[in-house]
Write a structure and sequence with these properties.
The chain has 353 residues and is mainly alpha-helical. The chain is built from 16 helices and 13 strands. A three-stranded antiparallel sheet has the order 1-2-5. A two-stranded antiparallel sheet has the order 3-4. Strands 6-7 form a two-stranded antiparallel ribbon. The relative contact order is 0.09.
């Protein structure tokens, strides 16, 4: 059936590399997005600068973005602009997507930047936006399409050009995560971040599905769109962390009577296997949380210190092993995930101390 063979390339690579594997909705935190957008003002690589803007605005896959053509942008019938591209994974042309002025400007800048290069190449790649002149290696001076691997190295990697170290976007601008370490930025995280931002603002999941080009909103909800939980952030903020238990004062325990009791009993009744309880008893009864050992991490009366760092790491390792060996499904996993998230936060904060 020769007429059924696709006339253009079907895949750009890696589309199905994660099939059947557990996928976490790993969106980019707001603080990291803020750092990225500030850094874009001073980014010298136009492909990185304008590419990130396009990825943030549209949520398209990196393979599709690198195949954008000069005619991809058109005026909107009412106002602004729309962007059209070929979805290689679904093997169809995407419907025109309304885009922000910032995204339209980014596309325009790339068209302008590659104009001279496109005049030097043949018709095979003349229409593409993401073409550049190779500046190192055996093919130096050749004008070609930017590969996904080259683009990823421009984001995160460190390459060498004539024995000179060339750092990527993350290294150049020192983009850090909440742990103070360099953030591991992937292009696909922009896709999940756009979906998560839309869902967090109350956008209907069907609209998010259409923006991402999914055939089913089940895929969108399961793998891409999460909700930025403000309540969970508040829980993290209230976790009791202190370097030295002897430094507990009225800023941590406001009630003077409870503070005096804690100072007297910190090595006895107040001590737990992974921290301290500032008030284990109330009106002659032991706290039910303490008895059942449930949700103590999120209790305002719980304090933990550096001496328990290894205990938290051991507990986290055990929970992650149970989650990894889980054969009972998502409902079983839901009992572990909140505790795992809080334990990771506790460990990160203790390590910072």
């Amino acid at each position: 059936m020769p007429n059924e063979v696709p006339k253009i390339e079907i895949f750009t690579g890696d589309e199905y590399i994660g099939t059947n594997s557990k996928l976490k909705i790993d969106f980019i935190p707001d603080e990291v997005i803020r750092q990225i957008n500030i850094a874009l003002k001073n980014e010298e690589n136009p492909y990185v600068k304008y590419g990130i803007i396009i990825l943030q605005s549209t949520g398209m896959r990196i393979g599709d973005m690198l195949k954008l053509t000069t005619d991809c942008i058109n005026p909107h019938l009412i106002s602004g602009y729309t962007l059209t591209w070929y979805d290689h994974k679904s093997r169809k042309e995407r419907q025109p997507l309304p885009i922000t002025n910032e995204c339209a400007i980014a596309v325009g800048k790339l068209i302008e930047h590659t104009k001279e290069l496109r005049e030097l190449v043949d018709d095979r790649i003349k229409k593409y936006l993401f073409i550049y002149k190779i500046f190192r290696g055996k093919s130096i001076g050749e004008i070609t399409l930017i590969s996904k691997y080259a683009y990823k190295s421009w984001l995160n990697g460190i390459t060498r050009n004539n024995k000179v170290e060339v750092k990527g976007f993350i290294h150049n601008h020192n983009i850090l995560n909440t742990n103070g370490k360099l953030y591991n930025l992937t292009t696909h995280k922009f896709r999940r971040t756009l979906a998560t931002d839309m869902l967090s603002k109350g956008t209907n999941i069907n609209i998010i599905r259409d923006v991402l080009g999914h055939s089913s909103c089940l895929t969108t909800g399961k793998y891409y769109a999460d909700v930025k939980d403000k309540e969970r952030a508040e829980v993290f903020k209230d976790i009791g962390i202190i370097g030295n238990v002897n430094k507990v004062d009225e800023t941590i325990i406001v009630n003077k009577e409870e503070l005096n009791w804690f100072k007297e009993n910190k090595d006895t009744e107040a001590r737990m296997e992974d921290g301290y309880c500032t008030k284990p008893c109330s009106e002659g009864k032991v706290c039910e949380r303490l008895l059942k050992r449930q949700k103590c991490y999120t209790c305002g009366r719980y304090i933990t210190t550096l001496e328990y760092l290894q205990a938290h790491k051991n507990h986290l390792e055990n929970l992650e092993k149970q989650l990894e060996d889980n054969i009972y499904g998502d409902h079983y996993a839901e009992h572990f995930i909140p505790t795992i998230e809080i334990l990771r936060e506790i460990i990160n904060r203790l390590e910072e101390i």
